[in-house]
Amino acid sequence: MDKQLVWDLPTRLFHWLLVAALSAQYVTAEWLDDAMQWHFWIGYFVIGLIVFRIVWGLVGPAHARFSNFITGPVAVWRYLKTLPDASAPAHVGHNPLGGWFVIIMLACVALQAVSGLFMTDDVFLDGPYRHLSSEPTLQLMNTLHHTVIDILLGVIALHIAAIAFYALYKRQSLTPAMVHGKKTTRTGGISSSRLWRALLIAIVVGVTVYAAIFWLPPAPVDDGFYY
Ligand code: HEM
Ligand code: HEM
Protein backbone atom coordinates (compact mmCIF):
# COMPACT_ATOMS: atom_id res chain seq x y z
CA MET A 1 0.00 0.00 0.00
CA ASP A 2 1.37 3.42 -0.87
CA LYS A 3 0.16 6.99 -1.24
CA GLN A 4 -1.69 7.56 -4.50
CA LEU A 5 -3.38 10.60 -5.98
CA VAL A 6 -7.17 10.18 -5.68
CA TRP A 7 -8.68 13.69 -5.76
CA ASP A 8 -7.32 15.73 -8.66
CA LEU A 9 -6.34 19.35 -7.99
CA PRO A 10 -9.31 20.91 -9.88
CA THR A 11 -11.80 18.87 -7.80
CA ARG A 12 -10.04 19.92 -4.58
CA LEU A 13 -9.94 23.56 -5.65
CA PHE A 14 -13.61 23.35 -6.61
CA HIS A 15 -14.46 21.97 -3.17
CA TRP A 16 -12.66 24.54 -1.05
CA LEU A 17 -13.66 27.48 -3.30
CA LEU A 18 -17.26 26.31 -2.98
CA VAL A 19 -16.95 26.19 0.82
CA ALA A 20 -15.45 29.71 0.87
CA ALA A 21 -18.00 31.13 -1.60
CA LEU A 22 -21.04 29.66 0.17
CA SER A 23 -19.78 30.96 3.53
CA ALA A 24 -19.37 34.41 1.94
CA GLN A 25 -22.88 34.18 0.46
CA TYR A 26 -24.36 33.48 3.87
CA VAL A 27 -22.44 36.32 5.53
CA THR A 28 -23.21 38.87 2.78
CA ALA A 29 -26.94 38.06 2.84
CA GLU A 30 -27.56 37.54 6.57
CA TRP A 31 -24.97 39.46 8.55
CA LEU A 32 -23.61 42.39 6.55
CA ASP A 33 -25.42 45.51 5.48
CA ASP A 34 -24.38 47.02 2.15
CA ALA A 35 -22.75 43.80 0.87
CA MET A 36 -25.44 42.86 -1.68
CA GLN A 37 -23.24 43.75 -4.63
CA TRP A 38 -20.68 41.23 -3.34
CA HIS A 39 -23.49 38.72 -2.83
CA PHE A 40 -24.36 39.06 -6.54
CA TRP A 41 -20.76 38.77 -7.77
CA ILE A 42 -19.91 35.78 -5.57
CA GLY A 43 -23.22 34.20 -6.63
CA TYR A 44 -22.15 34.46 -10.30
CA PHE A 45 -18.84 32.84 -9.32
CA VAL A 46 -20.75 29.96 -7.68
CA ILE A 47 -22.68 29.42 -10.93
CA GLY A 48 -19.31 29.19 -12.71
CA LEU A 49 -18.06 26.67 -10.14
CA ILE A 50 -21.12 24.46 -10.57
CA VAL A 51 -20.99 24.53 -14.38
CA PHE A 52 -17.27 23.69 -14.20
CA ARG A 53 -17.97 20.75 -11.85
CA ILE A 54 -20.69 19.39 -14.17
CA VAL A 55 -18.31 19.44 -17.15
CA TRP A 56 -15.50 18.03 -14.97
CA GLY A 57 -17.87 15.24 -13.94
CA LEU A 58 -17.99 14.21 -17.61
CA VAL A 59 -14.37 14.65 -18.69
CA GLY A 60 -12.30 14.80 -15.48
CA PRO A 61 -10.13 12.03 -14.00
CA ALA A 62 -11.72 8.82 -12.70
CA HIS A 63 -12.91 9.76 -9.20
CA ALA A 64 -14.30 13.13 -10.31
CA ARG A 65 -16.51 11.47 -12.94
CA PHE A 66 -20.23 11.05 -12.30
CA SER A 67 -20.12 7.64 -14.01
CA ASN A 68 -17.69 6.58 -11.28
CA PHE A 69 -19.86 7.41 -8.31
CA ILE A 70 -23.48 7.46 -9.49
CA THR A 71 -24.70 3.93 -8.80
CA GLY A 72 -28.03 2.11 -8.80
CA PRO A 73 -30.21 1.50 -5.71
CA VAL A 74 -28.83 -2.02 -5.23
CA ALA A 75 -25.26 -0.72 -4.78
CA VAL A 76 -26.51 1.96 -2.37
CA TRP A 77 -28.45 -0.64 -0.35
CA ARG A 78 -25.47 -3.02 -0.27
CA TYR A 79 -23.28 -0.16 0.94
CA LEU A 80 -25.86 0.89 3.56
CA LYS A 81 -25.73 -2.60 5.07
CA THR A 82 -21.94 -2.29 5.57
CA LEU A 83 -22.27 1.11 7.26
CA PRO A 84 -22.36 -0.14 10.88
CA ASP A 85 -19.28 -2.31 10.24
CA ALA A 86 -16.35 -0.17 11.40
CA SER A 87 -13.84 -2.45 9.70
CA ALA A 88 -15.51 -2.50 6.24
CA PRO A 89 -12.93 -1.54 3.59
CA ALA A 90 -12.72 2.16 2.69
CA HIS A 91 -13.68 3.42 -0.78
CA VAL A 92 -11.03 5.07 -2.90
CA GLY A 93 -13.42 7.70 -4.37
CA HIS A 94 -16.96 8.55 -3.25
CA ASN A 95 -18.89 5.58 -1.82
CA PRO A 96 -22.33 4.80 -3.39
CA LEU A 97 -24.25 6.72 -0.71
CA GLY A 98 -21.81 9.65 -0.66
CA GLY A 99 -21.98 9.82 -4.46
CA TRP A 100 -25.71 10.54 -4.38
CA PHE A 101 -25.14 13.01 -1.57
CA VAL A 102 -22.71 14.90 -3.80
CA ILE A 103 -25.40 15.15 -6.49
CA ILE A 104 -27.94 16.45 -3.96
CA MET A 105 -25.46 19.08 -2.72
CA LEU A 106 -24.63 20.23 -6.25
CA ALA A 107 -28.35 20.40 -7.16
CA CYS A 108 -29.19 22.50 -4.07
CA VAL A 109 -26.32 24.92 -4.74
CA ALA A 110 -27.34 25.22 -8.40
CA LEU A 111 -31.00 25.93 -7.50
CA GLN A 112 -29.97 28.50 -4.90
CA ALA A 113 -27.61 30.31 -7.27
CA VAL A 114 -29.89 30.26 -10.34
CA SER A 115 -32.92 31.46 -8.35
CA GLY A 116 -30.73 34.37 -7.20
CA LEU A 117 -30.61 35.64 -10.80
CA PHE A 118 -34.30 36.61 -10.43
CA MET A 119 -34.05 38.26 -7.00
CA THR A 120 -34.15 41.90 -5.99
CA ASP A 121 -32.90 43.62 -2.86
CA ASP A 122 -35.82 46.04 -3.22
CA VAL A 123 -33.38 48.97 -3.16
CA PHE A 124 -30.77 49.22 -5.92
CA LEU A 125 -30.03 45.75 -7.19
CA ASP A 126 -31.96 43.48 -9.53
CA GLY A 127 -30.78 40.03 -10.62
CA PRO A 128 -29.98 40.04 -14.36
CA TYR A 129 -33.01 37.94 -15.36
CA ARG A 130 -35.54 39.66 -13.12
CA HIS A 131 -36.84 42.19 -15.64
CA LEU A 132 -37.40 39.44 -18.24
CA SER A 133 -39.62 37.26 -16.06
CA SER A 134 -43.32 37.08 -15.30
CA GLU A 135 -44.69 37.63 -11.79
CA PRO A 136 -45.37 33.88 -11.11
CA THR A 137 -41.76 33.04 -12.10
CA LEU A 138 -40.43 35.76 -9.79
CA GLN A 139 -42.62 34.44 -6.94
CA LEU A 140 -41.33 30.92 -7.51
CA MET A 141 -37.69 32.04 -7.61
CA ASN A 142 -38.13 34.14 -4.48
CA THR A 143 -39.65 31.16 -2.65
CA LEU A 144 -36.83 28.92 -3.89
CA HIS A 145 -34.11 31.37 -2.83
CA HIS A 146 -35.56 31.58 0.68
CA THR A 147 -36.27 27.86 1.17
CA VAL A 148 -33.52 25.98 -0.70
CA ILE A 149 -30.97 27.72 1.53
CA ASP A 150 -32.49 25.93 4.55
CA ILE A 151 -32.35 22.57 2.78
CA LEU A 152 -28.77 23.33 1.72
CA LEU A 153 -27.75 24.18 5.29
CA GLY A 154 -29.27 20.88 6.46
CA VAL A 155 -27.48 18.94 3.72
CA ILE A 156 -24.15 20.62 4.58
CA ALA A 157 -24.66 19.80 8.28
CA LEU A 158 -25.27 16.14 7.32
CA HIS A 159 -22.17 16.20 5.08
CA ILE A 160 -20.00 17.40 7.95
CA ALA A 161 -21.66 14.93 10.35
CA ALA A 162 -20.86 12.12 7.87
CA ILE A 163 -17.19 13.20 7.75
CA ALA A 164 -17.14 13.17 11.57
CA PHE A 165 -18.82 9.71 11.62
CA TYR A 166 -16.12 8.30 9.34
CA ALA A 167 -13.37 9.89 11.46
CA LEU A 168 -14.70 8.86 14.87
CA TYR A 169 -16.54 5.57 14.24
CA LYS A 170 -14.77 4.15 11.22
CA ARG A 171 -11.37 5.69 11.97
CA GLN A 172 -11.16 6.91 8.37
CA SER A 173 -9.93 10.46 8.09
CA LEU A 174 -11.32 11.71 4.76
CA THR A 175 -10.50 15.42 4.97
CA PRO A 176 -6.69 15.32 4.46
CA ALA A 177 -7.24 13.70 1.05
CA MET A 178 -9.54 16.60 0.05
CA VAL A 179 -6.58 18.87 0.90
CA HIS A 180 -3.50 17.14 -0.56
CA GLY A 181 -5.32 14.72 -2.84
CA LYS A 182 -3.63 11.50 -1.69
CA LYS A 183 -4.82 8.35 0.01
CA THR A 184 -3.01 5.23 1.14
CA THR A 185 -4.40 2.58 -1.18
CA ARG A 186 -3.22 -0.39 -3.20
CA THR A 187 -5.25 0.35 -6.33
CA GLY A 188 -7.37 3.06 -7.87
CA GLY A 189 -5.03 6.06 -7.88
CA ILE A 190 -5.10 8.47 -10.83
CA SER A 191 -2.01 9.34 -12.85
CA SER A 192 -2.66 13.05 -13.40
CA SER A 193 -4.93 15.97 -12.46
CA ARG A 194 -5.38 16.90 -16.17
CA LEU A 195 -4.58 20.52 -15.37
CA TRP A 196 -4.43 21.85 -18.94
CA ARG A 197 -7.85 20.39 -19.68
CA ALA A 198 -9.19 21.91 -16.44
CA LEU A 199 -7.74 25.32 -17.29
CA LEU A 200 -9.29 25.28 -20.76
CA ILE A 201 -12.69 24.28 -19.33
CA ALA A 202 -12.42 26.97 -16.63
CA ILE A 203 -11.77 29.66 -19.26
CA VAL A 204 -14.63 28.53 -21.51
CA VAL A 205 -17.02 28.23 -18.55
CA GLY A 206 -15.92 31.63 -17.21
CA VAL A 207 -16.58 33.36 -20.53
CA THR A 208 -19.91 31.55 -21.02
CA VAL A 209 -21.22 32.41 -17.54
CA TYR A 210 -20.03 36.01 -17.92
CA ALA A 211 -21.83 36.24 -21.26
CA ALA A 212 -25.01 34.66 -19.88
CA ILE A 213 -25.11 37.23 -17.06
CA PHE A 214 -23.74 40.43 -18.53
CA TRP A 215 -24.21 40.18 -22.32
CA LEU A 216 -27.13 37.88 -23.04
CA PRO A 217 -30.05 39.45 -21.14
CA PRO A 218 -31.19 42.59 -22.95
CA ALA A 219 -30.54 45.68 -20.82
CA PRO A 220 -33.49 46.74 -18.67
CA VAL A 221 -35.04 50.12 -19.23
CA ASP A 222 -32.69 52.49 -17.39
CA ASP A 223 -34.38 53.14 -14.07
CA GLY A 224 -31.25 53.79 -12.02
CA PHE A 225 -30.83 50.12 -11.04
CA TYR A 226 -27.61 48.30 -11.78
CA TYR A 227 -26.43 44.73 -11.36
C1 HEM B 1 -25.26 29.75 -4.13
C2 HEM B 1 -25.31 31.06 -4.19
C3 HEM B 1 -26.17 31.86 -3.25
C4 HEM B 1 -26.42 31.65 -1.91
C5 HEM B 1 -25.87 30.55 -1.01
C6 HEM B 1 -27.32 32.70 -1.47
C7 HEM B 1 -27.81 32.83 -0.19
C8 HEM B 1 -28.73 33.78 0.20
C9 HEM B 1 -29.30 33.88 1.52
C10 HEM B 1 -28.95 32.98 2.70
C11 HEM B 1 -30.20 34.90 1.51
C12 HEM B 1 -31.08 35.36 2.68
C13 HEM B 1 -32.35 34.59 2.54
C14 HEM B 1 -33.25 34.71 3.71
O1 HEM B 1 -33.07 35.61 4.53
O2 HEM B 1 -34.19 33.87 3.80
C15 HEM B 1 -30.17 35.49 0.19
C16 HEM B 1 -30.92 36.57 -0.21
C17 HEM B 1 -30.76 37.21 -1.42
N1 HEM B 1 -29.96 36.80 -2.46
FE1 HEM B 1 -28.79 35.17 -2.51
N2 HEM B 1 -27.60 33.52 -2.55
C18 HEM B 1 -26.92 33.03 -3.65
C19 HEM B 1 -26.91 33.57 -4.93
C20 HEM B 1 -27.50 34.76 -5.27
C21 HEM B 1 -27.40 35.41 -6.57
C22 HEM B 1 -26.63 34.82 -7.78
C23 HEM B 1 -28.11 36.57 -6.50
C24 HEM B 1 -28.34 37.63 -7.53
C25 HEM B 1 -27.82 37.64 -8.74
C26 HEM B 1 -28.68 36.65 -5.17
C27 HEM B 1 -29.47 37.67 -4.71
C28 HEM B 1 -30.09 37.72 -3.48
C29 HEM B 1 -31.01 38.79 -3.08
C30 HEM B 1 -31.41 40.00 -3.90
C31 HEM B 1 -31.44 38.44 -1.80
C32 HEM B 1 -32.47 39.20 -0.95
C33 HEM B 1 -31.76 40.18 -0.10
C34 HEM B 1 -32.78 40.97 0.68
O3 HEM B 1 -33.63 40.35 1.32
O4 HEM B 1 -32.69 42.19 0.63
N3 HEM B 1 -28.28 35.53 -4.45
N4 HEM B 1 -29.28 34.79 -0.58
C1 HEM C 1 -20.15 24.75 2.64
C2 HEM C 1 -19.76 23.57 3.10
C3 HEM C 1 -19.45 22.38 2.20
C4 HEM C 1 -19.97 22.04 1.00
C5 HEM C 1 -21.04 22.75 0.18
C6 HEM C 1 -19.29 20.82 0.58
C7 HEM C 1 -19.53 20.16 -0.60
C8 HEM C 1 -18.87 19.03 -1.03
C9 HEM C 1 -19.00 18.43 -2.32
C10 HEM C 1 -19.89 18.97 -3.45
C11 HEM C 1 -18.20 17.33 -2.35
C12 HEM C 1 -17.98 16.42 -3.55
C13 HEM C 1 -16.65 16.81 -4.15
C14 HEM C 1 -16.61 16.49 -5.62
O1 HEM C 1 -16.59 15.32 -6.01
O2 HEM C 1 -16.64 17.46 -6.40
C15 HEM C 1 -17.58 17.21 -1.07
C16 HEM C 1 -16.71 16.22 -0.71
C17 HEM C 1 -15.99 16.23 0.46
N1 HEM C 1 -16.02 17.20 1.44
FE1 HEM C 1 -17.21 18.82 1.50
N2 HEM C 1 -18.39 20.46 1.54
C18 HEM C 1 -18.47 21.40 2.54
C19 HEM C 1 -17.72 21.43 3.69
C20 HEM C 1 -16.76 20.51 4.01
C21 HEM C 1 -15.94 20.56 5.20
C22 HEM C 1 -16.01 21.66 6.27
C23 HEM C 1 -15.13 19.47 5.15
C24 HEM C 1 -14.08 19.00 6.14
C25 HEM C 1 -14.18 19.09 7.42
C26 HEM C 1 -15.44 18.73 3.95
C27 HEM C 1 -14.83 17.57 3.56
C28 HEM C 1 -15.13 16.86 2.42
C29 HEM C 1 -14.51 15.60 2.08
C30 HEM C 1 -13.48 14.85 2.90
C31 HEM C 1 -15.06 15.20 0.87
C32 HEM C 1 -14.76 13.89 0.12
C33 HEM C 1 -15.68 12.85 0.68
C34 HEM C 1 -15.31 11.48 0.20
O3 HEM C 1 -14.23 10.99 0.58
O4 HEM C 1 -16.11 10.88 -0.54
N3 HEM C 1 -16.43 19.39 3.27
N4 HEM C 1 -17.99 18.27 -0.28
TrEMBL record:
Q: Which parts of the chain span the membrane according to its record?
A: 39-59, 97-119, 148-169, 195-216
Annotated localization: Cell membrane
Q: What is the predominant subcellular site recorded for this chain?
A: membrane
Query: Which keywords appear in this protein's UniProt record, sorted alphabetically?
Result: Cell membrane, Membrane, Transmembrane, Transmembrane helix
Annotated membrane topology is: Multi-pass membrane protein
The answer on whether this UniProt entry bears the keyword Ion transport reads no
Q: Keyword ATP-binding, does the record have it?
A: no
InterPro entries from the UniProt entry? Cyt_b561_bac/Ni-Hgenase, Di-haem_cyt_TM, Hydrogenase_cytochrome
Q: Where is the Cytochrome b561 bacterial/Ni-hydrogenase domain?
A: 6-181
Q: What is this protein called?
A: Cytochrome b/b6 domain-containing protein
